[in-house]
């Protein structure tokens, strides 16, 4: 598409779709007009892919996820269609800067963090490799809350991404299913029938997902809850206007808001309704599509692969059995086997508090038929394995991990270490019974978003050096390995990093009034705030460093800017204390005239995908410091390594594999490994011992305790101090000394800029394996038995 064609298309949409003219158009109007013009280019490849998939009559993959953390869509589409240059030229011919227009788009934040972002990377890779697939989820009216800081404390407000016209979705009133809750189960002539007491309508909204070079496109289908009747006319006519609107409001509540919480006990009933709502709608849709092409439901596993993104859609097991058995009359045992042939389950956490359990009381009242089917499935499994010591129900609760495991033909972890720990801990018994079921699929990230579009400077350099093929064949980055020894390439690589840092520095100055020196090391920790991720270990090190610089202000310190980003679940009190501590420490340290040329701390509020795209390319050091054994994989760690940030990290999650690939000499390792963590916890008074052995740690904790960061309010952070001195379950105190040591090694290494750049280049060169294209191909061959159809789309 030429610049002129694109320009004409934009102007036409501005006029005919938005009803405005160039003199009156706002940035948002231009952005939406551009989005429509780009969307027009997606529709043909999208149709071609759908038709190719129908013609092939092969297997389709269905990715069921409560979360899709997509971020902005326009830039992704422009990049994948190869229209970056035309779009930029078209916009400037209209007097606009493309970047300004692109950044006007609100993030689609329909996810909390890693699990949701993984789903978004997978969608993009599924399209890039040409695998016929659908993403299924919920069209939340409000995505993840907006975070702001008031006096250093997190304050949440609702997010409103749908307020502006949404150019990417197509409403499908014709694709709708009624979803029931509650009611009675009755047996009739040998057939069991569930009559729900209430129901809502799930209506589909489709967003096309376009792969690299526009060769293939899939669909993300999100369900929105609508009432079965719009309002109660009788009540309206009686003048009861609120009452009349009630059925609609109640129904819509189901897709109103994304759960921001991986910890609290709140809103259980609504959460279970959301899970069943989108799972049932998706399975109905999948069966409808299957039956439009085939007639024998026993063939289902040959045509349908359903991936459960954690246990959130695990009710898919009993629901599919219900559809096959109750509705379509397949014998129960066969229905269970058939369902299992379609289903597979990804586990993303071993933390006991994050493993879903539903009380049988709640499940029985909302989903009575499913509860009875779970009992049948459990009984069948127990009968097949009489020696097994466990069941999927315990203390009046259904354990969704066990249910998902038993109803899946494959169960995967998300990094090598995590998968080993799954076998050894939560699923040890089930693994013994089904030794073939668990397998590893190490996570990945899409290089289109996380390198090509987030880091155009580095991308240009890579393409100049080795051609463009790396974009969808990321292991080709190995070809730049020899260039680590090339002084000219190192300088170019350093210049790209430097320019990214300058851009971030001006952003921080403009948006936050913070001034940072681009010469300093940018040390970044961005992720959800959680005790196991140990942002408090990072801030403790900052405090100790600040004290040491203060003792010796004329020392030869390596200047650093520590940047934090991330949200805490609104109900997670301790995580919110950590946020408050970081902000309070930042305020004191940043205003210290003696130390501030060596150490600054910044914590921009409302971390999201778009901010990650700014921060990662500008980072020198990536903080991946979770307690070993707790971070299932991490995916931010991969984005940093690809963009040439060196990692300081523990042997946790995918850090282990990153270190193996980039080389131990290009990775700053510290801390206990998972086995040492378990042994350390058994030592009485481990925290007190660690503090006693390290005067720096003791002094940093004393400063917090004495109110150095809470003037006039001693004891403000006692919850944190006493946690770290006593129970310290996540072993912050015990790992501090080694973390400090590694950080000082980082300081020394950063001063040798040649050696540092060599290491950074090797990180980029050796991280190509972390492309989500590799992950998706591996799911296709090892779990889904699905074929790519790139050649068939003919686009
Ligand atoms: C559960 C029940 C009720 C309400 C909420 C939840 C809930 C919501 C979100 C539970 C867990 C999550 C999110 C988990 C998550 O993001 N896990 C991360 O997944 C990444 C992708 O595999 C990994 O890289 C991270 O290590 C893992 O923490």
Automatic annotation (TrEMBL):
Main localization (coarse): cytoplasm
InterPro entries xref list: Glycg_phsphrylas, Glyco_trans_35, Pyridoxal_P_attach_site
Localization, UniProt: Cytoplasm
One GO BP: glycogen catabolic process
Broad EC category: transferase
Coiled coil segments of this chain: none
Enzyme Commission number: 2.4.1.1
Matching Gene3D superfamilies: Glycogen Phosphorylase B
Domain of life of the organism encoding this protein: Bacteria
GO cellular component: cytoplasm
Catalytic reaction equation(s): [(1->4)-alpha-D-glucosyl](n) + phosphate = [(1->4)-alpha-D-glucosyl](n-1) + alpha-D-glucose 1-phosphate
NCBIfam families cross-referenced by the UniProt entry: P_ylase
Record-linked PANTHER family: GLYCOGEN PHOSPHORYLASE (PTHR11468), GLYCOGEN PHOSPHORYLASE, LIVER FORM (PTHR11468:SF3)
Name of the molecule in the record: Alpha-1,4 glucan phosphorylase
Organism, scientific name: Profundibacterium mesophilum KAUST100406-0324
């Amino acid at each position: 598409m030429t610049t002129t064609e694109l320009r004409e298309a934009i102007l036409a949409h501005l006029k005919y779709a938005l009803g405005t003219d160039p003199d009156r158009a706002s940035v948002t109007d231009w952005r939406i007009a551009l989005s429509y013009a780009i969307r027009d280019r997606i529709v043909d490849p999208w149709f071609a892919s759908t038709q190719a998939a129908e013609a092939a009559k092969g297997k389709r993959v269905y990715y069921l996820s409560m979360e899709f953390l997509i971020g902005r869509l326009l830039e992704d589409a422009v990049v994948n269609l190869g229209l970056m240059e035309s779009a930029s030229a078209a916009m400037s011919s209209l007097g606009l800067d493309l970047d300004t227009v692109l950044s006007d788009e609100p993030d689609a934040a329909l996810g909390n963090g890693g699990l949701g972002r993984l789903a978004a990377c997978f969608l993009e890779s599924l399209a890039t490799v040409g695998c016929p697939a659908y993403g299924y989820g919920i069209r939340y009216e409000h995505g993840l809350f907006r975070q702001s800081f008031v006096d250093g404390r997190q304050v949440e407000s609702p997010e409103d991404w749908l307020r502006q016209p949404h150019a990417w979705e197509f409403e499908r009133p014709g694709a709708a299913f009624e979803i029931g809750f509650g009611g009675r189960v009755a047996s009739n002539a040998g057939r069991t029938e569930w009559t729900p007491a209430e129901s809502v309508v799930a209506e589909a909204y489709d967003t096309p997902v376009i792969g690299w070079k526009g060769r293939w496109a899939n669909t993300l289908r999100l369900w929105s809850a609508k009432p079965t009747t719009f309002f109660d006319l009788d009540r309206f006519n009686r003048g009861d206007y609120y009452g009349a609107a009630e059925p609609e409001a109640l129904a819509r509540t189901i897709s109103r808001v994304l759960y921001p919480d991986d910890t609290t006990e709140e809103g259980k009933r609504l959460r279970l309704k959301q899970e069943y709502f989108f799972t049932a709608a998706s399975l109905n849709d999948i069966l409808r599509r299957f039956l439009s092409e085939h007639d024998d439901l026993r063939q289902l596993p040959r045509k349908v692969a359903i991936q459960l993104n954690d246990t959130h859609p695990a009710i898919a097991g009993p629901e599919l059995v219900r559809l096959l058995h109750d509705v379509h009359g397949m014998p129960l045992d066969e229905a269970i086997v058939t369902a299992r042939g379609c289903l597979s389950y990804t586990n993303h956490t071993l933390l006991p508090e994050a493993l879903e359990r539903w009380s049988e009381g709640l499940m029985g009242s909302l989903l009575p038929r499913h509860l009875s089917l779970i009992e049948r499935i459990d009984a069948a499994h127990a009968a097949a394995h009489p020696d097994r010591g466990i069941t999927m129900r315990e203390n009046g609760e259904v354990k969704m991990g066990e249910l998902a495991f038993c109803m899946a033909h494959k169960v995967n972890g998300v990094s090598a270490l995590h998968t080993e720990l799954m076998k050894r801990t939560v699923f040890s018994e089930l693994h013994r019974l089904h030794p073939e079921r668990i397998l590893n699929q190490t996570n990945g990230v899409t290089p289109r978003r996380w390198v090509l579009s987030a880091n155009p400077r580095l991308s240009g350099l890579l393409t100049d050096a080795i051609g463009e093929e790396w974009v969808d064949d990321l292991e080709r980055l190995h070809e730049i390995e020899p260039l680590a020894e090339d002084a000219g390439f190192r300088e170019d690589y350093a210049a790209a990093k430097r320019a990214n840092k300058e851009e971030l520095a001006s952003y921080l100055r403009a948006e936050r009034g913070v001034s940072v020196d681009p010469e300093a090391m940018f040390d970044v920790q961005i992720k959800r705030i959680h005790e196991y991720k140990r942002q408090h270990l990072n801030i403790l090190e900052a405090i100790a460093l600040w004290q040491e610089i203060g003792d010796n202000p004329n020392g030869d310190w390596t200047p650093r800017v520590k940047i934090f980003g991330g949200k805490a679940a609104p109900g997670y009190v301790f995580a919110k204390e950590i946020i408050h501590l970081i902000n309070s420490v930042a305020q004191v340290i940043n205003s210290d005239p003696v130390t501030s040329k060596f150490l600054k701390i910044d914590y921009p509020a409302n971390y999201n995908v778009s901010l990650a795209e700014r921060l990662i390319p500008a980072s020198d050091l990536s903080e991946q410091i979770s307690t070993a054994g707790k971070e299932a994989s991490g995916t931010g760690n991969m984005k940093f390594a690809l963009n040439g940030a060196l990692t300081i990290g523990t042997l946790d999650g995918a850090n282990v594999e990153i270190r193996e690939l980039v080389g131990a000499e290009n990775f700053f390792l510290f801390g206990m490994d998972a086995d040492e963590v378990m042994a350390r916890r058994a030592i009485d008074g481990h925290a007190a011992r660690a503090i006693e052995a390290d005067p720096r740690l003791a002094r940093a904790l004393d400063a917090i305790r004495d109110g150095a960061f809470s003037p006039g309010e001693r004891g403000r952070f006692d919850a944190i101090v006493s946690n770290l001195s006593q129970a310290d379950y996540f072993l912050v105190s015990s790992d501090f000394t080694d973390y400090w040591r590694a950080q000082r090694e980082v300081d020394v290494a950063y001063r040798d800029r040649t050696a540092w750049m060599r290491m950074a280049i090797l990180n980029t060169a050796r991280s190509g394996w972390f492309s989500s294209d590799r992950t998706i191909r591996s799911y296709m061959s090892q779990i889904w038995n699905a074929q790519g159809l790139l050649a068939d789309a003919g686009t």
